[in-house]
Sequence to fold (791 residues):
Amino acid sequence: MLSRGSSPRRTNRFAATGIAGVAAVTLLAACSSSGGSSSSGGGTASAPASSGATSASPTGTPVLAGGNCSSSAAHITFWAWVPGMNRAVNEFNSTHTDACVTLQDPGAGTGEYVPLNNALKAGTGAPDVAEVEFDLLPSYEIQKYLVDLVPYGANKYKSLFAPWAWSQVSQGNAVYAMPSDFGPMGFYYNQQTLAKYKITPPATWDEFAADAVKLHSQNPKAYLINFPANDPQWLMDMMAQAGAWPFQYTGGANLTINWAGPAQQKFAAYWQKLLDEHAVSAIADLSPQESTELDTGTLGGAIYSAWAPSYFAPNVKHSVGQWRAAALPQWTAGGKVGTDWGGSTYPVFSQSKHPAQAAEFSEWLTATDQSWSIVKTPPSSLFPTYLPTLQSSSFKALTYPISGTSQPNQVFSAGALSIPLTTWPPFMTQVLTQGATTFGAVVNGKQTLMRAFTAFQQQETAYAKSQGFNVTT
Amino acid sequence: MSETALRPAARVVTRPSTPRKRRRRSAYARRQGRAGLAFVTPFMIIFTLIMIAPLGYAVYQSLYTTKLIGGTSFSGFANYSAVLQSGDFWGGVIRVIIFGGIQIPVMLAIAFFFATIFDLGVARWGPLFRAIYFIPFAVPIVVSSVMWGFLLDPAYGPFNHLMNAVGFHNFNWLSGNLMIPSIIIIAIWEWTGYNCIILYTALKSVPRDVIEAAILDDTPLWRIIVRIKLPMVRPAIIMLVFINTIGAMQLFIEPTILNNYQAGVVTNTWTPVIDIYSTAISNGQYQLGAAMAVVLAVIVVAISVASLGFRGRRRGQQ
Fold:
């Protein structure tokens, strides 16, 4: 199935993908390339581009679809890393004569963002349309790299999308991208493991804490879930559900940063208590270790998102068919608050020479049954923000081998409509990298989560001020 | 072009500094000089384009600051002042110096040991083993880091089972205390074969008659190795120390990959290059990153000059 995931890739962004980018900077210090421990490798794949490749591409990136455009059609360059996207592009090209899209995949996450940022900064070489995750959209908006899609009719699609997704792509009266997929979160658990410890999916976070203690007391080697303190995105998404979202930003120079407020500290204290009691494990999430421990029953479950069944499936060997989805535990009994982890949008860039046709493609890709009938299926397996697909009974009834006959999309679809609105600071890459380091100290027990939150408040405030923002708490 | 004609000309070309000699140069020598220039020019053009110009541009960039709100402005040495006062940056520098200070001597000792065995010809299938030891060098560092990440994984890595079997429970190769030793092991695995080949080649160039004379004098083997061969390959060893030091200062890939196996150990300032990467790429502070890169370059150049100076002094003594 898919190895999709906006967020999963995010965690690895710091890793393998950084190598090509750093080469430019380290050139300075690089007198040797042959000796020592750190010559740069990696880089982009070197498959030759097919004949129709445009010049607007990272060097050597293969063309996955398009490339045989007629001269009368507007040539649209499109970057995305979702596997199987070429099927949708071919469908678009065969049904449209005014525009012809060429798809390239420069790599997931940073693999795309680094060449994209370079091209945008250079003022030339950027694609017309590219995949950009929700949390990074404000980073492109603030630098005026995006085309407002309202003149191209974007607003008429508003009612077709989950409210959270539409709020993410709009700022003021402008719409800066079309939303595609997202990841409503839930409690994803192994039915047999939980049954063994006589635990049913908890309805509230209080019950969740009690269950975590209960499970660990029965088996000191096992845990209900892993608490991935090193993953700021997971943390922030959970903070959104707890009503403790730490940022407010709606464009311009004013920015609210609040990691040290009462709601945030209460959230931190909840998890720190479980860490102190060793009721949750603390390892890197979406890591080989986590996958193995989930598969072998060391971990009973995970707070995962809608893409998790697909993301996790390739690593499952022993527990096929045992996985179930349940709604997120609630902070208030009887509540129905969800949250989102990851997801992508398709903005049009201001460098585009054909913004009308680029917008037409982005709208077709995200807001038509025709497109969703393709991208919801493997290997793309996108979880739709597009309501007609999200709410269709056939989508909710999908089954996955690791989940047996259960229908996890029933749970995730329900959670999709109750996501608290969030706004991202326009420098999320910095937040994620610094957060991984600051919260990573919690994993080692060198720091409590409360103190890490306070430290992060200071670090983020200092960074935002150095970038010229007026910061309030 | 006879050899006798070429020799004096070459000498003139390499010593063009005194005007007296330059005046005396023959037409032939001038032609030779022009030919030399023509040979050097393509390299110098490329060198200027891909090394000198970006270096100059980085220095230029490091004097500016770009803010998301407010744009770009000249900031003088503010970026340098920030780097020099950054505890994280210098912490990273000290970390890679410790890393290199252990990794390089251990690796060179192992490499010299194997190079000597190959050189003596006492091992059977020497060429085969030389090739085998060289293989890790041919594996891309990203790939070998991923491989070692699985080998050292705290949950199910075979090295962990090994430690468990000999009585060390809850042993974590990738924990905060053992991350540097683990990366040293990885780096030694990656680079010993390469260093071994260089040393083997150097040992091969030790004149046979010197060794034969020592053998006729009944010199013990270990003395031949330590007192004769080792001093004679000293230039190669100094070159390897030099190259490996530069590499160690740029440690990046191994800790970056291992970060995916163990949360919370490798920070975003763990080594100077990781620090530069997160500053420039993740934080978008390219100019500050450029200033850090210039400072790191100065440190590397200082170490290089020091090691070349050491080499020069050695020569002078002999």
Remarks:
- The CA atoms of residues 69 and 100 of chain A lie 6 Å apart.
- The longest strand of chain A covers residues 178-190.
- Chain A is about 40% helix and 15% strand.
- Chain A touches chain B through 66 residues (CB under 8 Å).
